[in-house]
Amino acid sequence: MNRRSLITAGTAALAGAAATSATASSSSDAPAAPAALSIAGLGLPVIEGGRLRNYVFVALRLQLGRGKTVEQMRPKEAFFRDALVKAAHRTPFTVAGDWTRLNEQALSAAVVSAANAIAGRGSITGVEIVSQSPRRRTGMPTTR
């Protein structure tokens, strides 16, 4: 057997295996995951007592509403970031006594509210806070 026929046989076997796995995955009745837009590296302030105490960098995953695609929403990501930073400076998402994390419920509510104004009502159905990383982990208030 020469090399060409060996390579051709191997390529045909791989193509057949790929075709059967593609049909197997498309025939399953599992519901498709909702479309999501990821926003990473957004620095939000922690303000307590009228003073800037820390910054917390958050990564968000926005679940898109019915009829919205990632391609439609990606150009609006800068507007989401801007609205969220402005909201965080107006009414900080601080957790009392902790300068290393933000209030997730208030943060989610602000994102959904901003999304209704930016992209239309129902464009964002949910917000998942993937991670929170504080800039400074020292100098926190002491609990006595």
Structural class: alpha+beta
Query: Gap between N and C termini, in Å?
Result: 82 Å
Order of helices and strands: HEEHHEEHE
Major beta-sheet overview: 3 strands, antiparallel
* Helix content range: 40-55%
Average pLDDT rating: 80
Query: From the alpha-carbon coordinates, what is the Rg to the nearest angstrom?
Result: 23 Å
Outline:
With 144 residues, this protein is of the alpha+beta class.
Q: How would you portray this structure in words?
A:
Helix content is 41%, strand content 31%. It is built from 4 helices and 5 strands. The model has no long low-confidence stretch (mean pLDDT 80).
Map the helices and strands.
Elements: H1 3-27, E1 36-48, E2 51-64, H2 70-73, H3 77-90, E3 94-95, E4 98-102, H4 104-119, E5 124-134
Antiparallel strand pairs: 1-2, 2-5, 3-4
Descriptive terms for the model:
single chain, 144 residues, alpha+beta, two-stranded antiparallel sheet, 4 helices, 5 strands, 31% strand
